Task: inverse folding
């Protein structure tokens, strides 16, 4: 065990001294995060702020459902809405003249028409700006009117089935004013809780992890080229100790670099990844997966130069497919392949964590990364060592 | 200290080492002399436990040497032909790292590192990164690392290749000193002069086999123990050749048109009589060269080719 840690300490000392690990594992990815955040994320951040809106409207003073419609618009919690009442004939002109976002004309006798099952039409006039706020207001009015329409349909159905007229009104009123029987609650899945900037930070951390772990196991090839591997093999340590030491070096560098990148990304770009414990588990899992891949590369190549090329190709393929630069979707077999990508699993896991997910919630992505690590280690045992044959 | 028995290594169809056996005693320097590709480095690799043998055994201090074993490796120090040092570490850091892997720690490790740095003449540059060293300095450090743990057997694989004369001499002096101190040394080279200077016994290797083994003098007797004398000059060389053939020490006389080439036993002793005899026979001698037999002659005699072919 002493020999193992002596080798790990020696490797870390050299990696720190030659500074390349700082450049490729920290400085370059951080710079790339910044550039990509500007390119893809813009300067305004990820959230949309709705501006205060103005609505020009008309409705009869005694029309109860008309008042309820305008009240629903005015009491929106997502944005400030000012409703200015004008005569019906002036709504269109006033909307255009004042630059209001929306004009609403509730027809005379609106409540009576709804309760008796007769047709009634609410007119909407969009302002010239065609603003996002106007779209939101139209959706709100549509939703309220749909509920009123349910009351109107109820009244019409009651009339057709022979209910006395005196009973139709209360029934329709109950349907129109009561709570909706079916509601649709829109929530975002936990995996989607990662903002665009969060995705970029996580993706770049995952992508450059592939390069960072290469400083470990692939160091075996450098040792072979500089002659020190022969001397190490003449020392009273086992070959397993030498390989394990390289893996430990890559693992330690990977964990430190990924942790620093996520922390720095959080700090610079205002991203939260959730529970530190969950994030730590995800980091350990993805570093294990990446390290196992370097074992495979180390078996397949003959020189350190070939190893660097192979590692770069794998990093870019896995990084892009995993969503390091932009989300990648697939269907069928392609979707399954994408799901097995450790970088993709890492980003998904961080998304779940950022959405408040627990260790149990990230079990899926962690299992994918662990399976990848196991497959990599197994593959490296089965593959012939081309470098040793050279 | 080292016993090698019937060592054989095959790479596919090629038999790189074919049934090699030899032994080295403590305090003895044993040389493997042969041209490039003769199998010296393959023998070294099996003796140091870097690669497995197809057949045969290696025992160091009585312990079997295998790639997986660690006990026998504690008693050897390997100086590979290629430099085996870390360029981003200082000389001292290189020594401390490999010393720790040998199980040496604390003040003992520091003390031995200081001793080795003095021995190899790098004490004043011990704190410099080795990538800033000259080729000779790197070579000396390469050897120093192999000495740090005071191995019973030091294995040097062509340690002076590509080294400047000054560093080369320093390396050879170091090896001589270590041998005097009781260390067994296995030394491979294709430089005849190094083998003659350093080695108590020498094995002449070619095509994976030991062609001959013994002390320098024992090997030279294989050539018949004769010297060559080159006489240059003018006059009656035919008469001189005839007269010289009659001398008891002279075994053969050849003429190349500009002088006479004589094969003689004990050339230095016979020289005076030869020069006098040539003069009396009418040859005016202008220069004389006595060429004593060496390991190059032995190799040529045994294999029919030169060491540097």
Result:
């Amino acid at each position: 065990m002493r020999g193992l840690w002596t080798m790990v300490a020696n490797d870390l000392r050299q990696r720190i001294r030659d500074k390349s690990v700082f450049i490729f594992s920290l400085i370059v990815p951080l710079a790339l995060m910044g550039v990509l955040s500007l390119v893809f994320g813009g300067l305004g951040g990820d959230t949309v702020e709705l501006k205060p809106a103005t609505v020009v409207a008309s409705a009869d003073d005694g029309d109860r459902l008309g008042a309820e419609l305008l009240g629903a618009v005015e009491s929106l919690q997502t944005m400030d809405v000012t409703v200015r009442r004008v005569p019906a004939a002036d709504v269109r002109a006033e909307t255009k003249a004042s630059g209001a976002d929306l004009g609403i004309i509730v027809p005379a006798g609106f409540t009576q028409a709804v309760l008796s099952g007769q047709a009634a039409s609410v007119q909407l006039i969009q302002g010239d700006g065609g603003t996002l706020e106007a779209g939101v207001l139209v959706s709100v009015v549509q939703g309220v009117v749909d509920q009123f329409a349910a009351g109107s349909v109820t009244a019409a159905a009651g009339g057709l089935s022979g209910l006395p007229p005196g009973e139709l009104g209360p029934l329709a009123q109950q349907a129109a004013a009561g709570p909706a029987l079916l509601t649709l609650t829109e929530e975002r899945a936990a995996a989607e809780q990662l903002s665009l900037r969060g995705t970029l930070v996580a993706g770049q951390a995952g992508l450059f992890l592939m390069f960072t772990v290469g400083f470990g196991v692939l160091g075996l090839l450098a040792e072979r080229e500089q002659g020190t591997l022969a001397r190490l093999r003449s020392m009273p340590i086992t070959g397993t100790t030498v390989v394990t030491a390289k893996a430990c070096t890559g693992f330690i560098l990977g964990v430190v670099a990924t942790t620093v990148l996520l922390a720095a990304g959080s700090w610079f770009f205002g991203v939260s990844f959730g529970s530190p414990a969950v994030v730590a588990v995800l980091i350990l899992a993805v570093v294990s997966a990446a390290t196992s891949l370097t074992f495979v590369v180390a078996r397949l190549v003959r020189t350190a130069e070939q190893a660097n090329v192979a590692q770069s190709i794998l990093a870019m393929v896995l990084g892009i497919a995993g969503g390091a630069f932009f989300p990648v979707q697939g269907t069928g077999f392609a979707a399954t392949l994408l799901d097995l990508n450790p970088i993709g699993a890492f980003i998904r896991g961080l998304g779940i964590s950022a959405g408040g997910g627990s260790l149990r919630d990230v079990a899926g992505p962690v299992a994918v990364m662990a399976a990848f690590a196991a497959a990599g280690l197994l593959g490296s045992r089965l593959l012939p060592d081309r470098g040793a044959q050279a | 200290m080292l016993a090698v028995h019937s060592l054989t290594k095959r790479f596919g169809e090629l038999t790189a080492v074919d049934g090699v056996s030899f032994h080295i005693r403590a305090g003895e320097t044993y040389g493997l002399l042969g041209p490039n590709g003769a199998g010296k480095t393959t023998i070294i690799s099996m003796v140091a436990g870097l690669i497995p043998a197809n057949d045969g055994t290696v025992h160091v201090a009585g312990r079997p040497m295998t790639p997986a074993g660690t006990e026998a490796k504690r008693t050897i120090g390997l100086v590979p032909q290629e430099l085996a040092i870390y360029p981003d570490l200082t000389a001292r850091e290189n020594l401390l790292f490999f010393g720790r892997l040998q199980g040496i720690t604390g003040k003992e490790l520091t003390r031995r590192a200081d001793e080795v740095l003095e021995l190899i003449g790098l004490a004043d540059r011990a704190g410099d990164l080795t990538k800033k060293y000259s080729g000779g300095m790197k070579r000396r450090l390469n050897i120093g690392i192999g000495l740090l743990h005071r191995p019973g057997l030091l294995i040097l694989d062509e340690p002076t290749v590509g080294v400047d004369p000054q560093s080369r001499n320093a390396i050879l002096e170091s090896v001589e000193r270590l041998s005097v101190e009781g260390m067994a040394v296995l030394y491979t080279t294709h430089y005849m002069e190094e083998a003659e200077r350093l080695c108590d016994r020498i094995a002449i290797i070619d095509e994976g086999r030991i062609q001959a083994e013994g002390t320098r003098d024992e090997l030279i007797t294989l050539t018949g123990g004769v010297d060559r004398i080159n006489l240059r000059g003018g006059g009656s060389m035919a008469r001189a050749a005839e007269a010289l053939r009659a001398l008891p020490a002279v075994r053969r006389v050849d003429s190349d048109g500009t002088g006479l080439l004589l094969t003689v036993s004990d050339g230095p002793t016979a020289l005076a009589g030869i020069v006098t005899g040539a003069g009396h026979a009418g040859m005016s001698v202008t220069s004389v060269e006595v060429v004593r037999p060496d390991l190059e002659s032995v190799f040529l005699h045994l294999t029919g080719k030169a060491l540097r072919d």
Notes: The longest helix of chain B spans residues 165-180. The mean pLDDT of chain B is 89.
